Amino acid sequence: MVLPSSQSGAGEPFVPVTFSGKPSLADLLTIETSASIFYSYARESDLSQLFADKDARNTLLVPTNKAVIALPRKPYNSLCFCSHEGPKPIEEGVILSEAEFDNLSKKNVERWVSAHIIPGSPVSLTSSGAHRTLLDGKNVSFTALDGDNSTPEWSRVLLDGSVHLTAMKEASNGVMYLLDGTVTVD
């Protein structure tokens, strides 16, 4: 097959794009409708570039839409000034400009998303100890549950003692676990 001629006048042979291997984390998040709110937040920051980076190896802890909706305070609206030292509450009566509020919201979203990313993949879910996330100072841990050893390892653990992993998807650049809750940032 030859494509229609280009400006140079000569047609170029058609070379189909072939898929070889697993989808990236970005691909999985794109097609996982139950995680669309998390992915929407993630795309607001540069962190989302990690999801398509073929050389990055990350473990994503992705809350379902239902878990995000159930949050009492949404990630963009955590009512704090956030820095490398952690959140500092906004004083009562302080008025923020629209630009300050937008900037604060973006920082809050980036902090929240980064708390759901473990650099490195795969990670052991049954070993004792904490796993560092991309949010400075935030670690997560997994607790093994008693259960049927014939079920996958991910289905027999709790994240931070209370959050169930509901699904696991492997990607070319990491692993994505769907959660019935969220990683606590505050």
Can you walk me through this structure?
The protein has 186 residues and is α+β, with helices and mostly antiparallel strands. Helix content is 22%, strand content 24%. It has five helices and nine strands, in the order αααβαββαββββββ. The strands form two sheets. It has a seven-stranded mixed β-sheet. It has a two-stranded antiparallel ribbon with strand order 2-3. A hairpin with a 2-residue loop joins strand 2 and strand 3. The radius of gyration is 20 Å and the shape is globular. The relative contact order is 0.19. About 6% of the residues have low confidence.
In short:
This protein is an alpha+beta fold and 186 residues long.
